[in-house]
Design a protein that fits this description.
Elements lengths: L3 E7 L7 H19 L3 E3 L19 H15 L5 E10 L2 E10 L2 E7 L23 E4 L2 E7 L1 H5 L1 H8 L4 E5 L8 H16 L3 E4 L2 E4 L2 E4 L3 E3 L5 E4 L6 E8 L2 E2 L10 H20 L3 E5 L4 H14 L4 E5 L7 H14 L2 E4 L3 H11 L10 H22 L1 E5 L3 H6 L12 E2 L6 H13 L6 H5 L19 H13 L4 H6 L4 H13 L1 H5 L29
Parallel strand pairs: 1-2, 2-3, 7-8, 8-9, 16-17, 16-19, 17-18, 19-20
Antiparallel strand pairs: 1-14, 3-4, 4-5, 6-7, 9-12, 10-11, 12-13, 14-15
């Protein structure tokens, strides 16, 4: 075997932009060849379309555009570099998730993904047929066995490639992030490498796509499952690794980030890519002086920069003076545009207009919701006039139990905290302040309140957030029944109150803005419950 320099192209394609992604691939190969002396460049799964393309795959124009892209790459890529890139393709009337191998101006082979995931956020059975054959290609005396993402998790295609004579396993991936997944992936990949006694190359995507976010962390393991090279998390780039006699040589070795850092970076990446890829000028958001909007503001500034973030405090009679002071202080700390728009006159105008209709009826949450809806109207007006996307700020705990107002604080285009439990909101706020001042300390330490009624606190109507989140995690992500959660040590009254609220508020969550998914099971494509149903939560 000759020495081999393989470059992992950890890049951020735009879904549907086949021409742009193709141009990025051609440029990456050029750079990898010049800067790193690349012999092989490997891209992520479905790179030419971006991942996941979903029903764009069903468009008639998809196949001719892909064929044009493959022809362009064959014509423009340096002939002495082998390129392995992912794309979909129709072959003999069937659609496959493919990895193509380009060398010397010719496409030398295609591998069809064999293991098609169809769980959680994955829906590949809807679009693809599974492949069944291995693909092993030789370059400079080294035989490379090609795999795609779920093939690694399944295991059978790994063994098949090794049996077909592969010296090195090369895997193209678009592996969405959730908490604890980086370490989980590495444990599995080490097991696969040891199982077949082969080095393993894992190339992952980077960046946000709607509610999914990809963390990068591309890596190479040796035949004993030890990490030889690990690319940075949350950064696009080209990462080279040298193989000598088929053995990966130690190189850059980024550490696995801590949980808070990983989650915070996921939220920043998801918001940044959603805003930038959608073409918004920036974001506008309500800043209440509470913990959720404070963390949301810090995320927005870290994602977009202060010049693209505009915050609005909209006080009412029940808005505490310390809330107004803390909001103003945080806006100053982070250097964002900031306005104060009192809403009392507008709420009173609504109340006066509704007075006859409401005659004889006691005040209830209707009046509280009016405050929230007035704020939503103001934010949407600013959005329309200035071309800024409204970033809403509710956390997963609130969205789970319906403690949010339709057409009020749920108004917006994106919610960075949609899949973040309240207990994690506090953890992230504390962590962010260790990186530099971003959130006033009093915002973190004072009891949470919606401030829609005199003396209101969240604990008035919900269990403490440590208990609430523990119940929610078991019910939402663990699919545990109410009785099973009670058996795990929780109070019956608390459990049944929480699970009934979760079930009852599916209709609200269906109307909520998109937000990045960072837990094992978010409210979105991987949790699909009917709004109208007669299911009982007990068993």
């Amino acid at each position: 075997m000759q020495d081999l320099i393989l470059v992992m192209a950890q890049l951020d394609p735009l879904v549907g932009d086949i021409a742009g992604n193709t141009a990025a691939a051609i440029e990456a190969v050029r750079e990898a060849r010049i800067e790193h002396g690349a012999d092989v460049v490997v891209f992520s799964e479905l790179f030419l379309t971006g991942y996941p393309p979903e029903d764009l795959l069903l468009r008639e124009a998809m196949e001719p555009r892909l064929q044009a892209a493959l022809e362009e790459m064959a014509a423009k890529v340096a002939r002495d570099v082998m390129v392995i890139v992912g794309y979909p393709g129709m072959r003999d009337g069937q659609r496959y998730n493919l990895a193509g191998v380009l060398f010397d101006g010719q496409w030398r082979g295609e591998y069809a993904k064999q293991a098609l995931p169809n769980y959680l956020v994955f829906d590949e059975d809807r679009y693809f047929e599974p492949g069944c054959e291995p693909l092993v290609v030789e370059h400079k005396g080294t035989r490379l066995g090609i795999l795609i993402c779920e093939d690694l998790w399944d295991g059978a295609p790994v063994r098949q490639a090794a049996e077909a004579g592969a010296d090195i396993l090369v895997t193209l991936n678009a592996s969405p992030f959730h908490l604890d997944k980086p370490a989980e992936r590495e444990r599995l990949f080490a097991e696969r490498a040891r199982e077949v006694a082969r080095p393993l190359v894992y190339v992952n995507a980077i960046g946000g796509q709607d509610e999914l976010v990809f963390d990068g962390g591309s890596l190479v393991l040796d035949a004993a499952g030890r990490v030889s090279v690990r690319a940075p998390f949350w950064q696009a780039g080209l990462m080279p690794v040298r193989f000598v006699d088929g053995v990966p040589q130690p190189g850059e070795h980024e550490p696995l980030p801590g949980a808070e850092e990983n989650l915070y970076c996921a939220l920043v990446t998801g918001l940044r890519d959603y805003v930038n890829k959608s073409g918004f000028k920036g974001v506008v958001m309500g800043l209440s002086g509470g913990i959720d909007s404070a963390l949301s503001l810090a995320i927005a500034v870290d994602a977009l920069g202060p010049d693209r973030v505009h915050a609005v405090m909209m006080p009412y009679h029940y808005t505490a003076e310390i809330s107004q002071a803390d909001a103003a202080e945080q806006a100053r700390m982070l250097g964002v545009g900031y306005e104060v728009m009192p809403i009392a006159a507008m709420v009173e105008a609504f109340t006066e207009t509704l007075a006859e209709s409401f005659s004889g009826l006691a005040e209830d949450t209707t009046e509280e919701n009016l405050q929230s809806r007035v704020r939503g109207v103001l934010l949407m007006a600013i959005s329309n006039k200035k071309g800024l996307m409204v970033q809403t700020t509710g956390n997963k705990s609130e969205m789970a139990v319906g403690y949010a107002t339709l057409y009020g604080d749920m108004v917006g285009g994106y919610n960075a905290l949609k899949d973040v439990y309240k207990t994690w909101v506090y953890r992230l706020a504390k962590w962010r302040n260790t990186q530099g001042p971003a959130i006033p300390e009093r915002v973190i330490t004072r009891p949470p309140s919606a401030e829609l009624a005199p003396g209101q606190q969240d604990s008035d109507s919900l269990p403490g957030y440590d208990v609430l989140d523990a119940i929610l995690e078991r019910y939402i992500e663990g699919d545990m029944s109410a009785e099973a959660i009670i058996e795990a040590g929780f109070e019956r009254e608390d459990v049944y109150k929480v699970v009934k609220l979760v079930d009852r508020n599916e209709y609200k969550r269906r109307q909520a803005p998109v937000g990045v998914r960072v837990t094992l099971r978010g409210f979105g494509r991987d949790r699909r419950y009917p709004i109208v149903n007669g299911w009982k939560p007990g068993e």
